[in-house]
Amino acid sequence: MIGKALIFMVPLLIAAMGGLITELAGVLNIALEGMILAGAFAAVVAVDLTGSLAAGFLAAMTASGLMAVLFSVTSLRLKGNIFVTGLAINLITPPLIAMVSKLLYGSGGVIRLSSGTLNLSQAESLLWLLFFTGAIWFVLRYTPLGLRIRTAGTDPDFLFSRGIKPAGIQSLVIILSGILCGISGAMISLKLGVFIPGISAGKGWIALVAVYLGFKKPFPVLLSCFIFAIAESLSDAAQGIIEIPANLILSFPYFMTITGLVLFSIAKKRKQ
Amino acid sequence: MNRPPKIIQFLIPALIAVLLLTGCGGKKGEEEKKSFSIAVFVPGVLAGSPTYEMMDKGVRMEAARKGATVKTVEGGFNQAEWSEKVTALAAEKTYDLIVSSNPSMPEICREVQKYYPDQDFLILEGSGKTDDQISTFFFNHRELAFLLGNFAGLITENRMEGNEIRKVGLIAGQEYPDMNNLIKPGFEMGFKNIDSAIELDFRVIGNWYDASKASDLATDMYAKGADIILTIAGGANQGVVSAAKNAGKFVLWYDSNGYAIEPGVVIGSGVIREDKAAMEMISRAIDGTLLRGSAIKAGVKEGYVDFIDDDANYLKFVPVAVREKMDRIISDMRSGSLTLPAGTER
Amino acid sequence: MSLKISGISKSFPPGGVKACDDVSLQLKCGTITAIVGENGAGKSTLMNILCGTVTPDSGHFSTESAPVVPGRPAGSAEAGIGMVHQHPMRSSSLTVLENVILGYEPRTGIFLTDRAEARKKVMAIQEEYGIELDLKSPCSELNSLQIQNMELLHLLYMNRKILIFDEPTASLTEMGAEHLFARLKRLREEGKTIIFISHKLKEVFQICDEIAVMRKGKILIHKAADELKPEEVAALMMGRREDINFPERKRPEGRKHGKRLYRLQGVGYRKSESRFLRNINLNIGEGEILGITGIRENGLELLEDIMAGMVHPHEGKLHFNGRDVSRSGPAELRRMGISYVPADRLNRGISRDSSIAENLILLNYKRMHKMGILIPSSIKKWTKEIQSTYSIDGEPQQPIRHLSGGNIQKVILSRELEEKPDLIIISEPSWGLDFNSRNRLHRELDRTAGRGTAILLISSDIDEILSLSDRIAVLYNGAIVLEKERTDLNRTQIGRAMLGLETGR
Amino acid sequence: MKDKNRLFGRFAGTLITLFAVFLTAVIFLLIFSKDKGDSLYYFFAGPFLNSLSIGNMLNSFSLLTFSGLAITVAFRADVFNLGGEGQIYIGGLFATALLLRYPELSGGGGIFLATVAAATAGGLLAGISGWLKARWNVDELISSFLLSGGMIHVADYLVTGPMSDRSSYLLMTGTISEAFHLSHLMPPSNLNISFFGALAAVAAMTFFLYYTKQGYELRICGMNREFAHYGGLNTKVYTILPMFLSGAIMGLAGSSAVLGVHHSTIKGFYSGIGWNGIAVALIAGTNPLAVIPSALVFAYLNQAASTAMIKADFPFELGGLIQAVVFLLISSKILAEKTELLFTFIRGKRGAGK
Description:
Chain A is an all-alpha fold. Chain A has helices at residues 2-24, 32-50, 53-77, 82-105, 122-142, 144-154, 156-161, 166-192, 203-213, 218-241, 246-271, and strands spanning 111-112, 194-195. Chain A has one domain (2-241). Chain A has 11 helices and 2 strands; from the N terminus they run ααααβααααβααα. A two-stranded antiparallel sheet of chain A has the order 1-2. The longest helix of chain A is centred in the middle third of the chain and has 27 residues, at 166-192. By secondary structure, chain C is an alpha/beta fold. Chain C has helices at 43-51, 73-78, 96-101, 115-129, 144-157, 174-189, 201-207, 230-238, 300-307, 330-335, 345-349, 356-360, 376-389, 405-417, 435-450, 462-468, 491-498; strands spanning 3-12, 17-27, 32-36, 58-63, 81-84, 107-108, 112-113, 162-166, 193-198, 210-215, 218-224, 260-270, 275-285, 289-294, 315-320, 323-324, 338-341, 369-370, 373-374, 423-427, 454-458, 471-476, 479-485. Classes of the chains: A mainly alpha, B alpha/beta, C alpha/beta, D mainly alpha. Chains in contact: A-B, A-C, A-D, B-C, B-D, C-D. Chain B binds chain C through residues 1-2, and chain C through 355, 357-358, 376, 397.
């Protein structure tokens, strides 16, 4: 069970790390879902064309990175409402993919790979989990960029007074999160060797939830991803034993997050 | 206390201007000679749905042969919008026939027909009704599921050495009436036909695209002893295949030839000949021999649903013993000497 | 490093009021120079010019090594000029060390922070200047003094030679101030050039070597501290306003002591380390005008907020008509007959994007409806009436932001007076008003008091206080240092009290 | 003069945004459509070619007017309601449930009660977010989104599970009795009398905001909360009330769709009403009357995509793409500001030339 959860949570965690750095930099990143999907698609297309896994990951990071650029331009440069533009990224990705897919394959549907699928063992999964969490933790803590990211979120004016433009840091972080989402998407689709419209299946939202539940700190976020993964495998296993309506299970993350948010707000209010 | 913004004063003339400008462009004159015209309404999107693609392909092939025109319209996943779109198609009054495929379409089309009584409809996968004005064609899912159930039973029996658990799996994208009333009972009837001790592990993904979840569910099912899983989960099917590959177990494909997807893993496949049905029905419609309100039901005997037993991969990977037993059951059903007891039908 | 400022001028808006008018100053190495002046004397503008955040219209400044390109923060930073702000900014998500080095981290390679090197450097500075701060503690837990120290640490880390301290004691306790002074002396010994900006003459004379007095954008005097007397400086700061001569208020006979109406009892308010208000005791009776004055940073805003129910005090009680109103919000106070004209007129006193009518009916729209439906005609009629009574310009439907400051003040005042309150809290009523409207306003207040309304006048303008009040209280450093009848006070005494040089009750 | 420029700039900014949207549509259309002339023609003129399209466009207009108005009310009080979809769904579901449970109600009474039920349900769902904001300062933007997202799945469960119509192959609840159907105005189009309901809602909301005590209080709170607090208004009430009103109007959109069009709650029927309501409101600003032209533009856009799809080979995905582009650009402040500047500049020049 735990081993299975470890494998399941790799893409989730990587996306959550993307959500974490943007959240810390003061950007509410609704667009994770769309960026993951873009990455999943680009990865499969690239592997299909070149047969190389590395090319797949590279293409995924580029595609998601480009979506991130679009997100950052419309929200930061054009000063759009960040929630609305983030949503727009999620809305724009599926039809874009369908259209590109139609151009390339003549169909907007499932793309199967004949070869080159990615297979992570439990040990490798654990390694990747620790690597990404550790890397983000390290960047946030021990690099100049990390200091800038953290300050951009809490005290952008202070950052500006030190001669650094907060919007620049935010754009950079959005693009970084796009690249992470690309990796995440590539892992989802390459693991199965297939792209299916909607394959991201809400992982971007869950990742964002994990960021909130993990108090916006790398290792607690890892933990909350783990809890999600365990909950997911429990509910998978439970289907064989007891009947829980799938739709009700799907509503849990939403209600869990709102509960977390309310508790967080109460604590904040008490402190004042 | 605030005045209405200038926007209103600007927008209305602007709208009228757009209307006039585009309206003045004029439209090409009357249609020349009217050929038989067909509209295909896809309740969903074509992409990723083999059955809808088969229907569209079938209609188009036959139409091309007979010089009819075809227009395909995708309705999208929002069921609430289907009715409006079918109405709009009927309102064109240029289509001699509107073709669609989904058990829910007849009820929508019946409503539309109230306003456009002259419009003919043909629904593949329809749900029949007496004194209906809508032509329906439906495939005997129970028979297909029965055949696949038999095969699943044979496979799990065959792998008995050192394995006490006799279990087969069924994964569905969502629960829907045909799944609960036809496919699941038919499948169960099938493997019980081989050995009544075989158990069923039935699970639902919740959508038709979450391949990761499908893979996780399948992994769990294989771990709990299922040897073979029938997967009816749209795009998410691929997740089941990938789980089977990792677990060294098997997958049963449902509605189209799936052997090539993963040779040696997909070792059995049914087929629903939606294209064949579409072609024949369209042919009849163009010839004027399709009766309004006819309800055609087609099963294994009629050749519209079947188990694919001549694929190279089937011959290569399925043990001879299993194939021999399966051959008997298939030929009995094809000849009509084996029929299923009455059950819930559409 | 010394600093030479020559002929700096700056007007806001361009061509308008001169915030700095041909300012020239020479600041020597190893000295602490105080720049003193009232609010709006031009000190902050001058300092912002030095820091590069404001571009001067004319003039230039230079260090001994090179002239500084004006209007560029980076230019001023390179020249070694740095400012410890009155309310220093910080990043609450970082530790002290990270805060100090943010933006200028020593690096290993291009990507990594060399933390060891940073720590070593910062600790050396700490040792040198005796700045005690735990480098590992998160900034969100620091008090004002520590935050100030952190900013200073950053400036020293950046090796700034010319240090500006902007009102550094404004939010410090006395202990904190003592610490700060010790540090300033230390910095002077190290040869830094220090500019010390303050209102508090006591402090200025305590630690500064030289004093420059600014008023209306001009440097009036710049001399060594021991050549000057506090009284002299205070007089220069305040100026003699012979040009504006208010008739002093003559209280109507027989109203000498109205019924006691409103009472503050031991009111205190604490924010982080430093107390902003402590043990405020005040009384006001019917028909009385109580003037509360002081320099703005000494707690006037906070007292205004507390009295108006916008903020609740941490200790002490407020009584109105014998009822405890310490926890009452504006709604309740208004119901009980207290009106309030805020100092922050544009953000609190009006809704800028609403119409004049909508602003005027804020307090009495409830009386202008039939079954919950507002009657536009009666609103319009009433608005017109008020506008003609108080001679307010503009059409009722016009957005109020189009009105002049004086007209906006009249809108607020008329709205409050029409409520026929028992007590009016009115803060800085003549800010931004011209001579005539100011006089009209004072006459109006006088009349209102004559009708028996108690008026709590908060103003940092001594002349206004002197011409209107029956009794005067002076707030300094969060406490009342002087409270006497108007007749027992003169302007010098008040001026000295505002600067913390005189006490008495 | 300055104000006129600003208004004109805002208007021009909106036009430019819309122009960008149409331009994107045309570009994609030219890339992906085979019969480009036809697609273009039907995209622009299609909605007006027959009474069915006009009727459906007006019906989509009335639904968008409800949802746009709902968002506008929230904007007016400076709060943000992002839970429109869930509120519409729950509203429609409650209306359906009531009419299924009490089929013996008279037609008018049933419609009235169902409408009230829908408004209450939607209002309460949004009201919770308002209350959480007033009580604990929970961001109403996120909370309304999450609550609505969760409730959508619960409603999905009810629609496909306990309340589902076993005789139907559509994922929907049972069908309400014919007595409760809103009369159609242009059959077979979906246009029904809720069209007048939408116009009445706009009128009522305008009246409420500008001519009632509470409307005045709400507007003052939305304009400047500190000023409102200073004036003794209860600002917390005006965090909760506008959210409630906003949700209630969303609920009305739900009941209009159920009673007027679908006659049952179909899974996911809210899609296309909820989010587009935000776009409608972002164009309309805070003026309820401006919702009407704004909703008209969006209804036109929807119908244009839909007719072009049916009459020409307009690709299905393009509809979604156009919606997404609208979202990307519609909330941009810079586009509007830049055009405002441009116009101020041009006008200034012209003035100087005189």
